[in-house]
Amino acid sequence: MIEETDVLYSGEQDLFEHLRIVVDKGQSLIRLDKFLMIRIENASRNRIQNSIEAGNVLVNEQFAKASYKVKPLDIISVVLPHPPRDTEIYPENIPLNFVYEDDDVILINKPAGMVVHPGFNNYSGTLVNALVYHFNQLPQLPGNDGRPGLVHRIDKDTSGLLLVSKNEKAITYLAKQFFDHTISRKYIALVWGDLSVDGKVEGYIGRSTKDRKVMAIFDDPEKGKWSVTHYKVLERFNYVTLIECQLETGRTHQIRAHMKHIGHPLFNDSTYGGNKILKGTVFNKYRQFVENCFSILPRQALHAKSLGFVHPLNKTFMNFDSEIPQDIEAVVEKWRNYIKI
Known about the structure:
This protein is 21% helix and 28% strand. The strands form three sheets. Strands 7, 8, 9, 10, 11, 12, 13, 14, 15 and 16 form a ten-stranded mixed beta sheet that branches. Helix 1 packs across helix 2.
C-alpha cells in the first residue's frame, strides 16, 4: 500500500520494488498520478501524489513528476525503503458458504464485497485467505502464484458460485474445461433499459484505451480476446430488465462490458456507468425511488447463479444452482411494485 507516512527517499537508502506496471501498447497519454489512481485499487490521488513527490515512483528507472504523461510500454515501478510484504498467504477464520464438497472439488457461494484472492494493496480478508484456513495444501496452477485452488474468479462485488480444486489432478482437469469453454455458467443480471427480445453480444474484449480500469469491445482481434455472451429476457419493468446471461467465454468483466457495449449497463454498476439514472422520468419521486434501490443494492446487480462441470474423478456432469441474493431480489421486487402504480 502506498501510505502518506512512508519514509522519504534519500540517496543513502536502498529501495525495494513493490509494484511494477508495464504500460499497454494502446495506452493513450495520461498524467502519471491519474494513471496510478486508476491502476492501484483503494489508493487516493493525494496519497499517490505524495508518494511521487517522495521519490517512491519511477518511470523507466527514473524519478518522474505527477504531471508526467504516461506512454505506451513505459515501465512504472512503485519503490519503498522497506522490502515488500512476504508472499505467504495467511489463514483467516472467515466464514464461507459451502454449497458442495468432496475429495476433489469445493463449490462456494461467494458473497458480494469479498475479494477472491490477495493482491497489491489488498492482502487480507479474501476468499483465498479463508480457503487456506479451512483446507491444507490446495494446489496451484503454474504461473498462478497466490491463488491456491482457484481455476476461475468472479469480481469483488459480484456474488455467486465459485469452483475450487482440492488436488493437482482436479485443478488440471477443471482448468482445461475453463480453457475449452465447456463449463456451463449462467448469471442473473438487472440491466438498464427495456430489452424485449433475447440476444447475443460478441466481440474482442480488452482494456479500454481511454480508461484502463474498464474493458471495452473491439472489432480488431489484436486489441482483445474473443468473447460471447448469450442473454435471455426473464422479466421487464419498462425502465430496467431482469435477464439471464450464459457465458460462452469467460473474460474479465465480460457481462458488465458486453451489456454496456449494447447500451444496457448493469443496474448500479459504478465502473460502467450504471450508477446513474439512465432510463425513466425526470420526476423527483422516480429519482428518489431509484436512489432507494441503489441504497438497497450498493453494487452491480450481477449474481453467478448456476455452474456446471464434468467432475474430474467420476467424469459425470454436475450442475449446481443458487438462490438470487436478498439485495438483488429486494430491488427486483421494488421494480415489480413500481410499475403496478
